Amino acid sequence: MAPAHCVIKGCKTSIFNKAPGVSFHPCPTSIEMRNRWLHVLKNRCAILDWSKSRICSKHFENKYMDSQRRLKPNAVPTLFPALVTDSASKTIVKPSDAGRTKLDKAFSKLTQAELMSDIKFTLARMKEPINLNEFVNDDLKCRSDAPIEAKLWVLIKKQEYLNNMLTESVLKNNKQLEVMQKSLAETKSGRKEMEQNIENYKYVVKCLQEKQATLEEQIEILTAIESR
Ligand SMILES: [Zn+2]
To answer: Which superkingdom (predicted)?
Structure first.
């Protein structure tokens, strides 16, 4: 739900007390307009949340309003209440979804268990790239002219190995990790029939990297507990 108050410092307008004719407006969505707004709004709001903050129409000159009192695409707030100068107060801009990939968004919604079942499912549809050996040497290094599938496949293998090692080291302390390793082991058996799909490769690399970070954090915590 949108906040009930205008985000501009010193402005008392809220949906409860607004005078007739005063309207509330969302922030722009384009990077270009956000940059222009940020330029004028820095130090003028405590927190600026691009998706939630609302600004009341008192801060917009008439030239920025259309006949239906909607903001024109080029609208920039220019009218502000007089403020006591406070050089220390800077506007905090909340990170927005702009620039995040679909993959990132999908990720943030998944729990660890869902992530693991997703990895399992995706791996089950993948198969080792054809002629992999031609592109990968014994040190598991890819030739520079190797196709992207081969490079990603090797990356997945290395991540998986790393994850297995990490998983092993914390296994005795954490039953949840036991389940995760089991699902990784199960994935291996079905891999021969897997379908090749570049998006799948990328997805799994990202999944495993995410999981690895979590495991490292867990190891850190466990080590800290043990060393007490
Ligand atoms: Zn206002």
So the answer is: Eukaryota
- For residue 58, the CA-to-ligand 1 centroid distance in Å is 6
Cα of 31 from ligand 1 centre, angstroms: 22
Gap from CA of 98 to ligand 1 centroid (Å): 25
DSSP string computed for 165-191: HHHHHHHTT-HHHHHHHHHHHHHHHTG
Distance 158 CA to ligand 1 centre (A): 54
Instruction: List % helix, strand, coil for the chain (3-state, nearest 5).
Output: 50, 5, 45
C-alpha 12 to ligand 1 mean position (Å): 7
What's residue 208's pLDDT? 61
**Distance from Cα 9 to the centre of ligand 1, integer Å:** 8
Nearest to 59 by CA among 71, 51, 47: 71
The model's pLDDT over 8-62, given as tens digits with 9 standing for 90+, comes to: 988 989 988 888 889 999 999 998 999 899 889 988 888 888 888 999 999 999 9
CB 199 within 8 A of CB 151: no
- What digits encode the pLDDT tens for the residues 107-165? 666 666 666 667 767 776 777 777 888 888 777 777 888 888 888 888 777 777 777 67
Ligand 1 centroid distance, CA of 8 (Å): 5
